[in-house]
Amino acid sequence: MKKIISLALPLLLVGAGLLVVPRLTATQPTRTATTTAKRQAKKPVASKLTLSDLQHSKKLTYSSIIYFAVKHSRLQRWQEVSDFKLGWQVEVYPRNGGAKYLVWPDQHIQDSAKNLAPNWFRFKDSQHVLYDSMIVHSFRKDQTKTASLTEIVKQINADHAAAKVRAMPQRLSVVTHK
Asked: Which of 16, 23, 59, 74 is the most buried (most CB within 10 A)?
């Protein structure tokens, strides 16, 4: 009798387990592709840059102008200000009813480090920017380029760089001279 019980008991436990396990798995909800997709965090989509954005923030305007010069102007010396981690210093000098904007590399640059004439830009009118780049060790005429703010904004959006440009004002300091 002990032999029968010792043989029957394991068979009975295995049989009971086979009955219980399918019921437990059947009661758990199944995960579908849509459930998983809903739980994944969506990446925030940076809104496109607009001319209106530039009208509301001078620093964003300067950042857009610098980004365009570094990435799309083909003026070689503008690469001197291409370090997005160091940032930039823009010095504003009033001039004949307008202003000249000198662009220095490094947000925290000191006057003692300002040895060579920097790149600069100015507004030809409310919608056009004139870039200037001195050619070092040469008596040739400065290199220039003109771009409209519309062209600059379109290019930034085409580069999918609106978020990058929106982050630039944090690393940009502006010094205004009178």
From this structure: 59
Q: Which amino acid is at 136?
A: V
**This prediction's pTM:** 0.73
Cβ-in-10-Å burial (0-12, 13-18, 19+) of 165 comes to: buried
What one-letter code names the amino acid at 8? A
pLDDT digits (tens, 9 = 90+) for 7-18: 555 555 556 565
Rounded to whole angstroms, the Cα distance separating 20 from 130 reads: 79
- Which of the 8 DSSP states describes residue 117? -
CA 150 → CA 51, 53, 103, 157, distances in Å? 7, 12, 21, 11
Q: 43: which residues sit within 8 A by CB, 6+ positions away?
A: none
Report the alpha-carbon distance of residue 156 to residue 122 in Å, rounded. Answer: 19
Distances in Å between the Cα of 113 and the Cα atoms of 61, 105, 109 are: 25, 10, 7
